[in-house]
């Protein structure tokens, strides 16, 4: 999903802000409103402010682009959630049987579920509706179809997680490059 579509352009308080851990590790992206709350409560500091100000009737607040938390947030290594969107993204919106790109892709179980195939990264691929119907409830070998590449669980790199924002928010690059 494009960065500009994740946050509505109708309200400036929904603009994306990069949140860094105290050790400058990129954590996530939050809204401008959430970033202002974190800064005002003393939980974060502003590192980049090239967007101007947010004016209210009684106060003026800076519009940060990048904030850093004042404390380290410990969390387990990231894993991507198993969703249709992430499977299509991993397979680059291409049918893994015929190689055709299409906006109308489906998700196919390589080994059908009724035969013991699980709902896992290693058993799900993107498929066009025609190939999915052709394969049916068979394995690829039984249907005489081959996969372009074996399915795998993608590694959530910084470019994978934040790459869609880098075209629009160039000032984030220096904080994302070292990771």
UniProtKB/TrEMBL annotation:
The keyword Nucleotidyltransferase does not apply. The keyword Nuclease applies. Residues 82-133 form the HNH nuclease domain. Pfam families: HNH (PF01844). This is 5-methylcytosine-specific restriction endonuclease McrA. InterPro entries: HNH, HNH_nuc, NA-targeting_endonuclease. GO terms for molecular function: endonuclease activity; nucleic acid binding; zinc ion binding. Keywords: Endonuclease, Hydrolase, Nuclease.
């Amino acid at each position: 999903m494009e960065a500009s579509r994740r946050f509505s352009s109708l309200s400036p308080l929904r603009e994306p802000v990069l949140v860094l851990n105290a050790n400058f590790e990129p954590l996530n992206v939050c809204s401008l409103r959430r970033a202002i709350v974190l800064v005002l409560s003393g939980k974060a500091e502003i590192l980049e402010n090239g967007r101007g100000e947010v004016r209210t009737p009684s106060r003026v607040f800076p519009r940060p682009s990048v904030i850093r938390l004042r404390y380290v947030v410990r969390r387990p290594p990231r894993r991507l959630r198993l969703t249709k969107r992430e499977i299509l993204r991993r397979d680059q919106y291409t049918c893994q049987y015929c190689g055709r790109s299409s906006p109308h892709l489906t998700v196919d179980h390589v080994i059908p579920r009724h035969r013991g195939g699980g709902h896992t990264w290693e058993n799900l691929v993107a498929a066009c509706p025609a190939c999915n119907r052709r394969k049916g409830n068979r394995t690829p070998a039984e249907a005489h179809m081959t996969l372009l590449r074996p399915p795998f669980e993608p590694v959530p790199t910084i470019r994978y997680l934040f790459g869609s924002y880098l075209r629009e928010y160039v000032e984030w690059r220096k904080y994302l490059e070292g990771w």
